[in-house]
User: Which sequence fits this backbone?
């Protein structure tokens, strides 16, 4: 039996084609997908494409659209062997992270992909990204089970865990990397899967929890920042959680006013998460004296989680947990392979 793959088009460069006369980029009609990419006809599988509606600039992504994407997958889950989400690259890591938390217990692949150049461009990276993503979404092992059973990002010959990925280049074809986790697969002459790195869920069935609370803020620490400027950020009436990007292994300035601000906020029920602004490595709260204070104030160590995963994970937990204690306890756990469990 042929594998069936559903393409979900949200927008982004990959879905654009240059008008031959005006040069303006417009979304091409996915009813004519085979005309734009004739190579798809050589794939021995059934393909169907659906669109969320008008193409969405990825900078306009938000929790409501994430819910729409996830709902498409849930509604079609029993009818397809895999899913490919065509998405703008700028916020792809956020969307893939969000869906990894909404859709826990996946037994089928959900592959996000996009491109740096439109499909209609001669040198486009979109064709290879799309064709290989479809192949991965359709791939099964010798027992007939999906090889990949998680939300992933495929870009420029590499497959990454979605919630471990970040965009690192605005113009290179190798736009994404997974700083603290190995590739799930490398596409060359063959697609070589890193089976030890693939997610192995303990859940017996798909759990769909679409609620997200967007009352989350992000603060990047820099030398000499003014605590006064950020007082409004730590207003429990407006913000339920703050993700801090700190120095190195989780360090912050020895600033008593800042510590007092956090103490008041966490005392009021706010959640503070400490992530590193470094490209690789992880938070080790207490390694230096200044970050030891964070431990005393109840700040949660983000370990090696990406900023994209930290923000979407706390949105997910705030939307689905009944208490602040539950939020904190679940954040410290790895829910979908997004952080080191050690």
Assistant:
């Amino acid at each position: 039996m042929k594998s069936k793959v559903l393409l979900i088009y949200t927008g982004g460069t990959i879905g654009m084609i240059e008008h031959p006369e005006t040069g303006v980029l417009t979304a091409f009609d996915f009813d004519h997908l085979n005309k734009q990419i004739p190579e798809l006809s050589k794939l021995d599988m059934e393909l169907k494409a659906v669109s969320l509606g008008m193409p969405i600039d990825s900078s306009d992504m938000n929790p409501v659209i994430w819910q729409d994407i996830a709902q498409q997958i849930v509604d079609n889950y029993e009818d397809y062997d895999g899913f490919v989400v065509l998405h703008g690259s700028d916020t792809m890591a956020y969307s893939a992270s969000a869906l990894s938390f909404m859709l826990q217990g996946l037994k089928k692949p959900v592959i996000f992909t996009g491109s740096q150049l439109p499909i209609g461009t001669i040198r486009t990276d979109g064709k290879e990204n799309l064709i290989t993503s479809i192949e991965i979404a359709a791939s099964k092992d010798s027992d007939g089970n999906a090889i990949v059973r998680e939300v992933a990002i495929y870009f420029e010959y590499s497959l990454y865990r979605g919630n471990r990925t970040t965009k690192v280049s605005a113009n290179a074809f190798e736009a994404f990397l997974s700083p603290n986790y190995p590739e799930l697969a490398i596409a060359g002459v063959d697609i070589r899967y890193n089976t030890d790195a693939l997610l192995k869920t303990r859940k017996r069935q798909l759990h769909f929890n679409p609620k997200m609370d967007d009352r989350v803020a992000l603060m990047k620490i820099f030398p000499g920042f003014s605590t006064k400027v950020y007082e409004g950020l730590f207003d429990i009436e407006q913000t339920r959680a703050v993700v801090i990007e700190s120095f190195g292994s989780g360090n912050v300035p020895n600033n008593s006013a800042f510590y007092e601000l956090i103490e008041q906020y966490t005392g009021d029920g706010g959640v503070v998460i400490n992530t590193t602004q470094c490209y690789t490595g992880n938070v080790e709260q207490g390694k230096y004296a200044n970050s030891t204070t964070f431990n005393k104030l109840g700040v949660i160590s983000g370990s090696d989680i990406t900023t994209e995963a930290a923000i979407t994970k706390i949105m997910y937990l705030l939307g689905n947990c009944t208490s602040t204690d539950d939020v904190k306890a679940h954040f410290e756990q790895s829910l979908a392979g997004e952080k080191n469990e050690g």
